[in-house]
Amino acid sequence: LLAHYSVNGKFDVLYSKVLDEEDISENNKDTLLKNEELKDSTLNRVEWDKVAKSNKSSLFSRVDVYCEKQIFSLLDSFDKIRNNEEINYWEKCKAINRKKIKLALIPLSLLVLSLSVFLKLGHRFKDLYTEGNSDLLTIILLGLIFAIIISIVLGIIYTYKKIKKYRMIKKK
Asked: Which InterPro entries match (predicted)?
């Protein structure tokens, strides 16, 4: 005889149920089958992780997974703030805007850092520029500027794609 106790601790007769031996054996079989399936899936996952770690080309996929987790956790924090019913609308806006400002400061600080590197390189190459190697210096600086611009554009595109993926996952 299995009994169901309600939240207040009283015995609830409506939910009491007698299981015969067939139900118990079927329940045990189902539990064992589910345990075997879980064990198989975890073994497969562990094996695939080993294959991914041993594969040299999986470096990019590991970096992709890491960046995706960072973006998803950030988007989850935005969703948690938006869906929090305990704070009012203006506090939600303030919290979200603070997070957005923090995110905007990261690329801005990287831009300032790269500009300071260019200024240092400009002072270092000043002697080369006056000696007549201006074409070489111009090519090097333009190459660096081009690489930084391309990496910024690709970073924006990558982030946009991950945001779209996050929204598709949340819709399901």
From this structure: Fam-L/Fam-M-like_plasmodium (IPR022139)
Distance CA 69, CA 165 (A): 12
Range of the domain at 21: 1-54
Q: Give the residue from 28, 54, 80 where a domain finishes.
A: 54
User: Is pTM beyond 0.85 here?
Assistant: no
For the stretch 61-84, pLDDT in tens is 888 888 888 888 888 888 888 888
- Say yes or no: 33 and 87 in one domain: no
Q: Report d(CA 68, CA 171) in Å as an integer.
A: 18
Domain identity same for 73 and 112? yes
